[in-house]
Specification:
The chain is α/β, with parallel strands linked by helices. The protein is built from ten helices and seven strands.
Amino acid sequence: MVPCPAMQDPDYVRRAFSSIADRYVVTNHVLSLGVDIWWRRLTARRVAALQPRRVLDLATGSGDLAAAIRKRLPEAEIVAADFCLPMLAHARKRGLQSLIVADAMALPFEDASFDAVTVAYGLRNMASWPEAAAEMARVLRPGGHLLVLDFSLPAGWLRAPYRFYLHRLLPTVAGWITRRREAYEYLGGSIERFPSGQAMESLLTTAGFTQTSTTPLMAGVSSLYVATR
């Protein structure tokens, strides 16, 4: 794979999420009007339908998705990993036990270790999207599944007002809640740059996945990508 430039500065991302860890969950719910809860539940249902025995939730943050998956699959082993220790402290409060400080660019797991890998709103923040996807493919068993939930840009008439919200209103509201406006000012640009739809499917195919699919959520404000190793 040809090396690609950094998509995000990992040091900046770690500092940003450390600074908002205590208010991260409530801020997400306010900014999305609670729809982010439904998006994660939908993803958890898709994971449960695959009946994996061992799941890795990357960039788990406060553990929202990992907890939703555990509720659907109480007998499965759910491993939650993040490179930001303050976020994992909040994940532990949700009762998650298998928590690991790990960088998704260099995972401390053997090849073919998991039946499913999930990442919600985390791939976009990683230093290299293609290299991170390739690392996820490495730790998945053949026939295993990757599920990526992340923001995208809606098409049609909704795109312009959504961009206004993304670049003008969202940083202001998030700044009021977290008192860390700067941690959200980069968000709009990161979403603009992040591949979506066919571009994301192509990225995953290059990383070694097949049977890729895209499910737009709320007219494309978020998208759920599913791919097979």
